[in-house]
Amino acid sequence: MRVTQLRQADLNLLVVFSVLAEERNVSRAAKRLLLSQPAVSRALQRMRDTFHDDLLVRTAKGYEPTPQGERILRELEIMLPRLDRLISGSTFDPVTEHCSFRIAATDNATSIIAPILCREVLPVARQVRFTFASWRGDVFEDLSHGRLDLALIGDEGHVPSPLLTEIIYEEELVCIVAADAPYKRQLTLKQYLAAEHIGVDVVEGSQHIPEKRLAAYGHRRRTVITLPYFGAATRCIPGTKLILTAPRRFAGLEAENRKIKVQKAPEEITGFKYLMIWHPRVNTDAAHAWLRSEIRRIGKKIGS
């Protein structure tokens, strides 16, 4: 890591510059910083010498930032809260602090969790940005190397050490079939095995939970087509004899579609738990703890 310039810099100057740019007035900035006006003026001059730019210029309305000053201020809006949190270990404030989170999630988890996050979290956490990525085979490696912050998936996959997990809600599996399908309220295992199925690529080409449930009884279903998304798979059902096995809450999102109906899955196709997964490296980080608390809260709402 190159820190040649950082060794020679006084980081306190960044705080003075940030407050002065906000107040646009030396006396008001000095009062907030508990410094004398000459001390604030000297700090500004040292900043100018460091960056070889005027940074702030006096106008009739007070100090105004130069283009270079604007660029520095944008960086400081992100850097200073993080540095303060790094030193003090204080809590994360999503209202005022900038932060970005990268989350890997299955199609189902994204469909259920992201809408609640958009309605309830984003309006409050105005400075926070979320990026959801589809589940890939290298998710655990990306968590370990810091390329992802969190992962959401059903608990049937093996989660390698030292990654940490927490159950956020429990889910059932149901069968989505065409509206005119001859099935009663619940399919029998015999009916299920006799039919042809649409599979969904949840993890590495497989819809692993129903496959494992059947394998425990020595059975395997006939999957004639596999799609990457539950939504696309649902739209394939009308006019066919195919069965789509899907999480109950996802099926509830399609309740207004009169071309399909939702049946109980065979009793052998039992439910599962949804997990959030993260690396212990970020376990005590205030921003990450806030993220987990929000996902936990959403999970409780979903499960209630």
Secondary-structure blueprint of this entry?
Blueprint: H1 4-8, H2 12-23, H3 26-33, H4 37-51, E1 56-59, E2 62-65, H5 67-88, E3 99-105, H6 107-121, E4 128-134, H7 139-144, E5 150-154, E6 164-171, E7 173-178, H8 189-194, E8 196-200, H9 208-215, E9 222-227, H10 230-235, E10 243-247, H11 248-253, E11 260-264, E12 272-278, H12 286-303
Parallel strand pairs: 3-4, 3-5, 8-9, 8-10
Antiparallel strand pairs: 1-2, 5-12, 6-12, 7-10, 7-11
* The CATH class of the largest domain: Alpha Beta
Radius of gyration computed on alpha carbons: 27 Å
Q: Judging from the principal axes of the Cα atoms, what is the shape?
A: elongated
Estimated structural class: alpha/beta
* CATH architectural grouping of the largest domain: 3-Layer(aba) Sandwich
| CATH evolutionary superfamily of the largest domain | Periplasmic binding protein-like II
Strand order in space, largest sheet: 4-3-5-12-6
What do we call the CATH topology of the largest domain?
D-Maltodextrin-Binding Protein, domain 2
**What is the arithmetic mean of pLDDT?**
88
The total number of structural domains is 3
> Helical element count?
12
Strand content: 15-25%
Q: Residue ranges: pLDDT <50 for 5 or more in a row?
A: none
For the record, give the distance between the C-alpha atoms at the N and C termini, rounded to a whole number: 48 Å
DSSP helix fraction:
40-55%
- Kindly state the number of beta strands: 12
